[in-house]
Amino acid sequence: LFVLLGLLGARTHWRSDRRGAALLGVLFLTLSAGLVVYLNFRYGYSIARDRFPAADMHEVRERDYFFLMGFSVWGLWAGLGV
Asked: What is the CB neighbour count within 10 angstroms for residue 5?
């Protein structure tokens, strides 16, 4: 539901203000996928333990807090979707 509301809000934002929607889109990509590439994250502490059991292939702890701002931008779009 949250994904659909975010997509609907992004579409609504794009139709009403393309420049602002493009700005938020770049901000969202930078603060989500861009951080993974820039910070070179490994698998999380609990993700893919069965496929990659070596401890050096995983982060020491979950790094979910890096994605807080990307989640906030998506929340703005979800609010517009409501």
From this structure: 17
Burial class (CB in 10 A: 0-12, 13-18, 19+), 32: middle
Could you give the count of Cα atoms lying within 13 Å of 65 in the half-sphere of its Cβ?
2
| 8 Å CB contact between 81 and 9 | yes
Which residues are CB-contacts of 6 (< 8 A; sequence separation ≥ 6)? Answer: 74, 75, 77, 78, 81
| Cα 32 to chain centroid, rounded | 4
pLDDT digits (tens, 9 = 90+) for 28-68: 999 888 887 787 666 666 666 667 667 666 665 666 777 88
Q: How is the chain split into domains, by residue range?
A: 2-81
Bridge partners of 58, per DSSP, are 43
Give the pTM. 0.71
